[in-house]
Specification:
Number of helices of chain A: 12
Oligomer: homodimer
Helix content of chain A: 40-55%
Distance between the termini of chain A: 55 Å
Low-confidence stretches of chain A: 1-8, 354-359
Order of helices and strands of chain A: HHHHEHEHEHEEHEHEHEHEEHEE
Mean pLDDT of chain A: 92
Structural class of chain A: alpha/beta
Radius of gyration of chain A: 27 Å
Largest interface: A-B, 85 and 85 residues
Strand content of chain A: 5-15%
DNA sequence: CTGAAAGCGCTAACAC
DNA sequence: GTGTTAGCGCTTTCAG
């Protein structure tokens, strides 16, 4: 027991009524002042502002939202925040939302595959969010609910990392392009037997990346054998296991496109242990451009995806939809946005033995 | 232009009044039903529930919070979500909040050092959050505002990653212990010249980790020279640079405690290039236990900190404070919680050449 | 330029 | 069990 009471005596929040009384005006006048309306005389305004200052008055957003039917709040649904990808996206979301004057009500699903989503949507809607940002990757059938629920949603909703489709507003990374860029680069390095460690194929993104790999091989006239790819689950452990299997079942392999950097790290470790020199014996390209990738050994070539940009783009689009729908105008047509990835070349894929780029 | 209008015609949200009319009862009865009060006849309840179902009625939380003076919302302030640490903590926060029936209003500071914080607090308070969770690490003077603002905060607040102090509710990791465990382990491995790559020393956590290192050396009777430590900024690039400098200014060094795994990764790369064998020539321990750490080369010994646990502990404590203060009871005394870290030993610090632990 | 009245959607407090 | 009245804190509408 200590004698300092904690928490300290709570201050009651002042109301607009109290401000009005203290300033000797009506609540309407105070309201005009806090809303920066022009139709208040300078003296009255000063007077009111002084009282507000003195009382530490802060308008109650709840009451405001209630009457204005506008909460300036975005409902953001995410999953897997313990991984760096989703959190980088969230970073872009919060930053952009803040800039546009919106608050973020965050909901993290317990798993990527959470079902049903009904209660989550309901909670968000009950809180009167102005729009919803669904930032959970498309996996298996976790988009099934959309066509059931979408028609009667009272607010705009936008989907991240989703197969673009009619009637849906989607912002996604062009994963196919990413897989293609990585694999074409390997072709250009003179590799002719290019394997693939894919992500879990119930993930839409994993399928896209794999299809980019297939495209690049086809284009180069290289055969795509069944044994040239193995499925992982994004983790380094799975990358280790998958790569080990790949080496075994595809002994001719002289390059590999690994669907994310974490799995590539696992693969690199197998290579070390097995005495496979990277890139001399085997060239490797990853995906994601983790902050750590330049410091892998050797530094890892990879595909850069700007997840923050993805998040902020989605927020901008959502806010546009919200504002359009508030104006009673014809709402925006559905329109998908595909963000382009970029190839980053480092030592792990350079067959021509040049000085290793450490940065 | 396509002819499917998007978004589809918005459904107006039904109100309690409409439900009441449709069910032929008063709004009060509907209110009783949705609040699961016992004093409604079974028939009436059924009747009302049917109408609710049919109309897809969802009570408006804003209106509810307004009258109940309770929003069941936690204001969470964070920073640096693009880094894995803060997002793992956030993961723990959202999960625990959900479980306890609270929503999360998220605010990410543009930088760790953002100042002033006044507007952020005001926004949260305007939205009538029931409590605030300040999940920004203590850096430089970014806690200065506390004693100015704390006394008149109308809701409980809890601080993460903060120097425990009288009058403040704090949940932190025991960083000193972590640094101590790492360094003592190196001593036990027979190392006698143990260097340190610290984090930026304006971070409280960095100072704590360094002081743990000092403690372990003192305890072992080893001298702590000025040249035995260099400051980094948490990034791999800074780790590379700092370690390079350390090797130069402290040539006798046979072990190093690096204040996080990312910097350790940079240091490992320098070691590779310089032909310093880890752990034979130099033992290394990191801090954080990144998911990637077991796949570094060699696998990195490190200090595990459970950041999710940190977040969920803070939420539990905050909700307790909220509930205590609602009961008009004597509020809880300030009381700090220190979460313990754990040493994880892998190949990078094992001088006795055993089989390398790849898992 | 300022204020009075009404009401956003809901529930506390009381009646019956 | 159920309804009535009042009001949470604010803004809309309209009057002056």
């Amino acid at each position: 027991m200590n004698d300092t009471p904690f928490p300290p005596q709570r201050q009651r929040r002042a109301t607009i009524k109290e401000v009005a009384q203290a300033a000797g005006v009506s609540t309407m006048t105070v309201s005009r002042v806090i809303n920066q309306r022009p139709d208040v005389s300078p003296e009255t305004r000063q007077q009111v502002l002084a009282v507000i200052q003195q009382l530490g008055y802060q308008p109650n957003s709840l009451a405001r939202s209630l009457i204005q039917r506008r909460s300036y709040t975005l409902g953001v649904v995410t999953a897997g925040l313990k991984y760096i990808g989703p959190s980088r996206t969230l970073n872009g979301i919060t930053t952009q939302a803040e800039e546009l004057g919106y608050n973020v009500l965050l909901d993290e699903l317990p798993s990527f595959n959470t079902d049903p989503v009904q209660p989550i949507l309901d909670t968000l809607l009950a809180r009167q969010v102005d729009g919803i940002l669904w930032a959970v990757p498309e996996i298996g059938s976790n988009r099934q609910w959309i066509f059931e629920r979408l028609p009667d949603l009272p607010v705009p909703i936008i989907f991240l990392t989703t197969q673009p489709q009619e009637g849906l507003m989607v912002v996604s990374m062009d994963n196919t392009l990413g897989g293609y860029l990585a694999s074409r680069h390997l072709v250009e390095q003179g590799c002719r037997a290019i394997g693939h460690v894919s992500g879990p194929l119930d993930w839409w993104e994993a399928r896209q990346r794999k299809s980019g790999w297939q495209q690049a091989l086809s284009e180069a006239g290289l055969p795509i054998s069944e044994t040239a790819s193995v499925e992982g689950n994004w983790s380094s452990a799975s990358g280790e296991k998958a790569f080990r299997q790949l080496v075994e079942q595809y002994p001719l392999m002289d390059a590999v496109f690994v669907a994310n950097d974490q799995m590539a790290l696992g693969a690199l470790q197998v290579a070390h242990q097995a005495g496979i020199r990277v890139p001399q014996d085997l060239a490797m390209v990853g995906f994601d451009n983790l902050a750590e990738a330049p410091y892998f050994w050797p530094p890892l070539s990879t595909v850069q995806i700007d997840q923050q940009e993805l998040g902020s783009t989605a927020v901008r689009a959502l806010v546009q939809m919200i504002e359009a729908s508030q104006l009673q105008n014809q709402p925006l047509p559905s329109q998908s946005i595909l963000v382009k990835p970029e190839l980053i070349v480092r030592a792990s894929s350079l067959r021509t033995l040049r000085a290793i780029d450490n940065q």
